[in-house]
Amino acid sequence: MSTRNENGIEVGIYTLADIGPDPFTGKTISSKQRMDEIIEAAKLADKAGLDVFGVGEHHRLGYAVSSPAVALSAIAQATKHIKLTSATSVLSTLDPVRVYEDFATLDLISGGRAEISAGRGAFIESFPLFGYSTKDYDELFSEHMDLLLKLNENEVVSWDGKFRPSLNAAEISPRPVQEQLPIWIGVGGTPESAARAGRLGVGMALAILGGDPTRFKPLVDIYHRAGLEAGHSLDKLPVGVTGHGYLAKTTEEAKDEFYPYYANYWNYVNRQRGMGRKMSRDEFERAAGPQTALFVGSPEDVVEKILHQHELFGHTRFLAQVDIGGVPFHKVEKNIDLLATEVVPMLKKAIGRKKKVEAL
């Protein structure tokens, strides 16, 4: 069952595959167990009827996935219907030819379910790892995105650039099941990134990790305006929203359960960035307030937040990250179930009702 076909919005989950210590026991699971649980989560999401499963890319200890295409290929063999996307591929430091061929291969394995979400990443360790300079941060991404789009459009490509060898009538193989792979750009908050996504005519995936979501409305306007000025139609300019989430029967229960893991997550992520301060419960309560973009609460309250953002952005995709900070797998499983059985039906009903009113 496709939720987008029925209610105008795709709903799914994604993971960055962080391996955080349990905040209660201090114990950390192995990379093997984390990978097994990610594959199992994808199987559960597929069986529950969710639309999309995403896997992120990191190149540091503390994360289980450095190659989303490889992880998603394993997931493709264990699922039947769910779309499979990176979340995101750090395109600045990846060879676009390798990225395209890997995801085209994933598309063949999965029967046409592969997508690419490209971004510049939250960390910079991939730059020295693959021999690039952070001085070329933006220029690398622009050039690699230009090439990736050409590879997606053409079987034979000639191309010249600054950071990789030229291509002269190069045959790009394999070709995917889909006519072209869906490509999105992950946007964290910069107008330049939103305008780039619009000019290129690719999807824009907004990473909204907290705060007031209305601050992202100008980015959607910039994205659509740039896309229209470049000759793209609005139906070819989809907006997706990604964010942290946690569901329970009541909002208080959700907040009580999630706070230790959420505070734990930001504690070790900020340490990785050279900072470090534990989030207080009061800070968490403010972060999870009804007017914020942190999707923590009962299914009803989470639906209200999604619908509020739908009014702002008109987005066609919502992906929640529910496995951060050492959340144990049985709680991830519960979140998948609540998302599929309670959130999706309420969204379907509310958006369907809105469409009927707009059609009058």
TrEMBL record:
<keyword id="KW-0560">Oxidoreductase</keyword>
<keyword id="KW-0503">Monooxygenase</keyword>
<dbReference type="InterPro" id="IPR050766">
    <property type="entry name" value="Bact_Lucif_Oxidored"/>
</dbReference>
<feature type="domain" description="Luciferase-like">
    <location>
        <begin position="10"/>
        <end position="314"/>
    </location>
</feature>
<dbReference type="InterPro" id="IPR036661">
    <property type="entry name" value="Luciferase-like_sf"/>
</dbReference>
<dbReference type="Pfam" id="PF00296">
    <property type="entry name" value="Bac_luciferase"/>
</dbReference>
<dbReference type="InterPro" id="IPR011251">
    <property type="entry name" value="Luciferase-like_dom"/>
</dbReference>
<protein>
    <submittedName>
        <fullName>LLM class flavin-dependent oxidoreductase</fullName>
    </submittedName>
</protein>
